[in-house]
Amino acid sequence: MRIVSAALALLSSAAAGAQLRLRVQSNTQLQLAGEPQAEHTHLSGRLLDSLGEGIAGATVRIRVHEYAQPPRRLRATTHRDGSFETVVGRSNSTLRVDASFPGSELFKPSEASTLVRAGRRGVALTWSDMPRVLRSAEPAYELEVRATSEGGPEDIVIDLTAEGHFLASATTDNRGVARLAVVPRRLPTDTGTLVARSRADDRRSSATLSRAFVRQAQPELTLQAKRLPGTGSVVLTGQLIADDTGLPGQAVGIFRGDVHIKTALTDDYGRYQMRLSDAALQHDETANQAAQARFRSTTPALAHANSPSLDLTPPVPPPSRWWLLLPALLPLVWFALRRHTERMDERPLRTSHGDTPNAPIVERGRARRLAKEVDRISGTVLCAGSHQPLTASITLSPMADGETHASGSCHTAADGRFESAPLPPSRYRMRVDSPGHEQLSLLVEVPHRGEWTGLTIRLRNLRDMAWNSYAPVARAASGAQETLPTIREAAGLLKHRLEDHAKAEALGSRVERAVYGPVPPGPYEVAEISESAAKTLDELGDTPPKSGR
Known about the structure:
alpha+beta
């Protein structure tokens, strides 16, 4: 029985031992560095694990040995990156420092020692004409750092860093001057701090010098003009670029001399577009109609920019002598009248969504007399703002007796083009749907003589529609005409103009979610934003801005 009981106890202990977990301790490494300062000797170090990562919250035991003095015991606790520092003695004494980490449940113990020699002299660093603004358009800046020390100013190695990134290194000459080349494009942030640090040697201790800087980008602003024949107006387009990247959401104003004409906001690619009439451009009949685009920055990290000037004076037509061509035009007039009944309407077909630049537009293909009627519908779907091809589905539903019947559909290719299958003769309801864009619906007839071939369909972006509905509210809240506030800034300004603070915050949050949210808004949500913005704009018209704003 005793043998059976011992066997059962052995089996139970083995089963319990199977649940134990094996824990492996990591090797550690202790690094030490001592440096005499002006009055004291400073000890710094770092505790690393086997992967070279710092160990945080560990206690390091330090023992300081000084000539003819009893050893002194100190303790230091490591920071998040495993580093630690403490004062271990006077700067005029030679010290031997022993440090040890006793280990823990996860880490093995380790030890290290260092010898700190006395006699090092302090170093003082100063900038020589250090600019605060470093323009990214410049290829490089040469910064001078001057070093002075009782141990001599020459042969001191100085390292230059910015926000923890190494930039350059140089050695001082016999006058204590070190020249360091800095490339603005290598600076990590728009604003930061430059740190110059001298390396310690046998004669001199290390020193640190810092200075705040601003990396300023120099934007480039372009302006092109295209006159629309027979309309008395001109279309101005351009782009705002900084560091080879378009700047979105920036206000660009058009000026004629010192007279402001109009302001437009740049899109996601830094592009802008506006249409001006000759009456809006006309200011002085005797002056030249030279226009210029101007951008005024609101942050020191971005400089102002002006575009080259363009002469927008309407061309003067030469004296008309059309009557001299009348004999030659008579045969052409007779031929045109003969074929008048066979011509097709070349005018573009527009929907009823308004006449804004981003409104959805449908342009028919150029009229041409075909040998036979066409039973297909084809065209291209583009974005009304960026003019980029869109992925869209086209649904064609036949209509008879005022009712819509079973429908067929097709989809656009990568370049936005589509072409339907052969369709039976009928009148069709054509619907175009693209994610994130406004839906379009129109009536087409099949068969046709080419007017429904080569359609160009432009759909408005729902995010742009949400922002365009809110932009008048933001402009009215700030009272600014050239620079629009952000959505959050406008919501904050509305609190000082409206009694209902929750309404201002709710409208701003809804617009911000519609413009920047991961999922584009729906048409009903955009319609609600437009209605709320219109009501808020009416309330702002009756509420004067408070003093102090």
